[in-house]
What does this fold into?
Amino acid sequence: MEIRKYFPNKPMPDMSRPLYLIIPAAGLGLRMGISDSKQFLDIGGMPVLARTLLAFSDFQKNRRVPLHAVIVTNVDNIDRTCELVEKYHFDFVELVVEGGATRQDSVGCGLKALSELPVPPSDMDPVFVHDGARCMVDQKTLQKCYTGGILYDVCVAATPCKNTVKLAQQVSEAFTAAKSEDSPLLVDKTLPRDLLYEVQTPQVFRYRSLLKVHEYARMSGIQATDDTALAEACGIPVRLLPCSYGNIKITTPEDVVMAELMLKNRENR
It folds into this structure.
């Protein structure tokens, strides 16, 4: 006979919470060597941003989770982004807003937009911050991040570092000159690879935590390249969620080739 134990004083997490999504999508394509914004670059017959949104559309349908999304882009691309949303019928996108001077500022604009939605997030609702150019995110990664967003204040998709990483010495003028002239840098030390992870997106926060870290950063004058670094500065633990190496960001021409090969492999399964 199967015996089960019931713990009435231990509440189970709510695994059916709505999901809120901020998508920074203001990439200019400088490293792609193109004049157009990279979120409109064609990948397998569909713009990069549309492929990103399609992944979330599939997740919403498969998981039956209420999804509320805000896209943050530069002012010149607002109309074009709205046209893309309408063309592909991404009804979960509720606002397209102008971003700021930095990615951090743009996420702040998206955070403000969430508060203005007809149904804004509650304190415990998970909020994804996901790069518009990270269009190859898979359903397993989204599910792992959604579950993590319910269980933890802050978590992020990440992959174990494959390469050995060296920390270079920062030697004032010599370091600056070496960087500008593409000269060899002096190694300070080798970092332990088994403890190194490359973070991706989604970066996932409970809504109250995302509000807290951005307010703390604003008051403290802190700038960071990702939102989990703000959580670290604020003293909030960040959980790493090991996810797929295929969750690439379209940044260089090589990434386009890789993404199209991955799409062909998915179609042939």
